[in-house]
Structure prediction request, 269 residues.
Amino acid sequence: MRVHHIPLIQPLWDYLRLHHSQTLRSPLFPVILTVSSYVVFCIPYLVFNLMGRRWPFIHKYKIQQDRNPTGAMIFHCLGITLYNHLFYIFPAAVAQWYWRPPCPLPEQSPTILDIIFGMLGSLLLFDFQYFIWHMIHHKNRWLYKTFHAIHHEYMAPFSLATQCLGGWELVTVGFWTTINPIIFKCHLLTCWIFMVLHVYVSVEDHCGYDFPWSTSHLVPFGIYGGPIKHDMHHQKPMSNYAPHFTHWDKVFGTHAEFTWPRIDIGLMC
Ligand SMILES: [Zn+2]
Ligand SMILES: [Zn+2]
Prediction:
């Protein structure tokens, strides 16, 4: 008899599959998962914004030291996020459920390596897709004004600006985040973990802080841009189009180096 190697996280998957199958198969599960992780990831950064200079040990990591979001900016972004979820995300989830009804959960869990490669592949592919989309939406004046300008209302990004997006951009981004793990034939668990990871890196890109534990410092050789790179895109919008990694901007000559401490350049598109 052949002995099958049991993945390390099989017990966790069995528990989820046997006890929470109804929840996991619900069309709303991915929406609830991403919305709740978005809120959880944004809260600490909002607290840092609120405390500002009263917490110098945190504020010293702020990329644009003199630009903190105001209450009006926070409420504006919250309003747009709520609107987008009601009119785009929720209908998209229902449509997906209609066209792709919930399938039975597979018995076998993925291995840790499956998850790592699935996430890495999906993130690299997303980085390329968004790089092209983003560059086109900056080069074409009509596309920029109609779809992407809303995201550039703030020169100093803060966590809630992550989803301060036009509906078309949000649907496109959501589509790639959903479809990429499917392209790589990832396990459902990997798809969900990728969704949460993607919410995290997107919020981190916009957080406005360059902490020592920022992904750009954890990934070696400067291959990952992280918050400092995307912050530069908000200051100087004709550069740094790739959301996460640095290679595409280097290949296409749109890479802008980040200097520290930063001087505001004031080049709004
Ligand atoms: Zn941005
Ligand atoms: Zn942009």
